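Input:
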Amino acid sequence: MKDFSNLSLNKLLPMMQPQTWDAQNTCARMGIKMPEIIIDPITRISGFLEIKVEVEHNTINSAQARGLLYRGFEPMLKGRQPLDAIYFTERICGICSAAHSYASALALDQALNLRLSQNDKYIREIIHGFEFIQNHLRHFYIMLMPDFVKITSPAIANSRQYINFRLPEEVNRLLEEHYAMSYQYAMLAHEGQAVLAGKAPHNHGIFTGGVTTDLTSYKIVKVKSIINKIQSFVDTAMREDVDILAYYYPDYFKMGMSYPNFMSYGVFDNAEADISYVNPGVLVNGILYDFRPEYISQQIKYSWFVNDTTDELNLQKEDAYTFIKAPRYNGLPMEVGPLARMLISGIYKGGHSCMDRIIARVLETSKILTIMSKLADLINPLPNGQREYLLPEVSEGEGFIDTTRGSLAHFIRIKNKLIDHYSIITPSNWNLSPMDSNGMAGVIEKALIGTSIKDTENPVEIGRIVRSFDPCVSCATHLITPKGNKKIIEVSV
Amino acid sequence: MEDQQNCPFTAAKSVSQRLAQEAVVKIMNQDIPKLNAIWLETTGCSGNIISFLNSDNPNAYEILTTIVNLTYSNSVMGEQGEAAFDKFLETLNTEFILLVDGAVSTNKDGAFCIVAYYHGRRITSYEAVKMAGEKAKYVVAVGTCASYGGISAASPNLSGSKSVGDVLERSVIRLPTCPCHPDWIVGTVAYLTTYGIPELDNEGRPLLFYATTIHDNCTRRGFFDKGYFAKTFGEEGCMFHLGCRGPVTRSECPRRKWNGYVNWPIGNNTNCIGCAQTFFPDGMEPFVRY
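Output:
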């Protein structure tokens, strides 16, 4: 891997083709109003997202992704008990809650200076693995498929806006059947998680120091059986289904391209090849670099935050359009998620279009199931290793982990045995970020710019491209303030 | 509802399935109409819709195709943008159940949670809850945020989140727990469809599901009665001294269990954190203490 510092921002900027607001400004000066399209709600995602685009000659000229939910999670955590952070922060997100419990537990492990047993680490990974599977199944079938396949049952999945579904009737019927079947398999993934972690969403199994599960042979067999059932569905139905989508919608291999920048904090980054997936890394223009947390920064020029250090909001702030801040890695927007991981790990050799993103997610589902199956062979039926934890007066911890939608980081600072500061940078922060002060659009915004819209009355391309990222606004609207520091990202509110 | 089974334990556990079956039969025989329903996500984690999708026997697909005609849901509906909100507005003129998933944020006139952009105007979740809440045949608060404010209203509550009952001047059925168990959602919807409002306690919770505390039926109750207490997670004994909120928390978790009825928090060696209660989380902390 190469050191990223060789590559200065100035050298990279021209390559990134920053989106400028020039077109809009020019039009405004000339008194021309560009036709704009606002889609709100972007349904079939988690949370509340509004997309605004400006269209000229049927091509998207500029785009804004607007996260319209603010919950103020980090201020809530201040002053609470450090050990409560895990069960508290997992409630940020109902669809990827185990991911937050995982990152939060990693941060606490570090703050409390705890070492995990190999068995506990593997159990955590299986719990987290079930969250990936549940997410990917629900996203691919329930959330994404109605964009490409005519789903007539249940009636709510049908749409009057999509008038040109391309699948022949028989093929369409097959995928509709798989859509119906997916409900059962996604449910089963959460059942697998509950076997090891009590319940889902909002599990009780991942805790600081390891897991709370007493693993028995019966539980191992049950987990394996669930993994096998889901894997047979994924390998026989889901992988075929994505091939069908790719065959009938080949134009989506040329649409929805964002920056050639990808980042992962690593997940299932085990030493043994058969249980490893992706190590931390940053891929820019096809070159792989080490991941260095101190390169993360953020901007608020287009967010409703007054400044970087308080929770103060100003909804009248000029140019601002979202509750989401703009995190950047060495000044660059980064795409995170399944495609980023598949490219960084070298497993997927394709491009980075809308369809590539969908394919990567499906291939990843299968890959993770294979790893989970191997992990289930490695875990031993042992009682949990929980004990009494003594809280330090002062300490810090950070948890970096890649999860369903991409790179997730939790930071905790403990003072007087209480949470002094807690902050979170979620995957959707990266993908849904607004423009930065260099004029570089956020990742999803960039993916929309340049897209040609066939029918501006029914701009189906927008929803398809946005959903290929599996955005989650419940997660994205959080307050983050990392500052460069060698050991840890300093955070303050 | 006819009680077809004699054993009170199995009868209680299968109540949702039996209610769902009755609703299906009556709807198919055209004895009762299938009701419309709006699932409105507001300020929260959207975890209750995920929990609803975790329904088992019948699963969520079967429920959506047989028992209830869901017309609006941010997570599953095909339509988007104005066409999606059209569906919301169309439903208001019908007989429908409003299911709210999340608290209602009221600060800045609700601007912290926008559910739609319609005819040049942003619709806040506050406004949407009021619009639909006034017209709905039944209003169901699904999960702890909708029922009591929950995590969304945790101090300092910068979003000004309130429970659904706090912003509507009408009776609201509360289905707390974080998230709500799918059986309680399905059982309540089936009961509303078939019989109307079930018997509720003084906080609006159906007695069918919230009549007992966790402590009443806890699998570790014997330890409590004999005075054996666990000092860490995983130790044998009652977890009362670790901070278990089972004695004050009304929920049938110990009997029903979660996700295909395989496990529950105490079954996984951790104490109940009181997620079904009015003052969760602020009044339930610390979740864990040694």
